[in-house]
Amino acid sequence: MSRFARFRALLAALLLLETTAPSRAADGGGITTNPDSSPYILVGFVGGFVRHDNPYHGPVIVARHLRQKSPKDTHVQVFENRHRRKAYKTIVQLLDRNNDGNLSTAEKGQARIILFGQSWGASAAVALANDLNRIGVPVLLTVQVDSVAKPWQHDDVIPENVAVAVNFYQPHGIVHGRPAIRAADDAKTQILGNYQFDYKQTPVQCEGLSWFDRTIMPDHMQSECDPNLWGQVESLVREHMELGSIDTVANPEQHAEIPHLER
Fold it and tell me: Which of 155, 167, 180, 188 is the most buried (most CB within 10 A)?
């Protein structure tokens, strides 16, 4: 069995073992997730100044695959990292099932949200999770790929409304990803791990890159188009969707060692 196959098997075991206890809202009120009554909301963010529909970039490719193979009521959308507020409003509108302009406790508890992104987009995913935490909306999964925070952002701490989080990074160049993330509350968030990819050892070819990208930050940009890495991101998202019939509230006593992923 490959390292990534073992990784997926452990992920499935973790999710199946997780308790069905209610999560805790940011304002102190309880939120009981009821995933069977609401479709998935999958939100990706591209990095840098990339357009949300750029066909060469990982978040866009993953989103396209997910649209093709997910249940028809799944909402999949990619945003520029600077449009986080637009993504937030989109999620709130989707959760507002009765269209009364307010999210009830039941509507919040029905949320099945997965966030992913690369570079500034990865940091935007964590920032959006924080936005949702402030109104008591749970998030199933966040995936960061070579995460780079803007000066006012904190992409290293995963808020307590996130059930599971994982971080992929590469360590080289002027611009490189954050090597480690941690949970704000270990009792509520499972950190699957921080996994390193090394493009000095195994480079990948990227299409559509500018001269600046190829010359100034080639390793960082390879993390944006690496088909192996983004295939793993897609697999993680699908794993959570397949196991989404259970509540995903992390339990610190059920942490398991995840094998280091290698290219």
Answer: 167
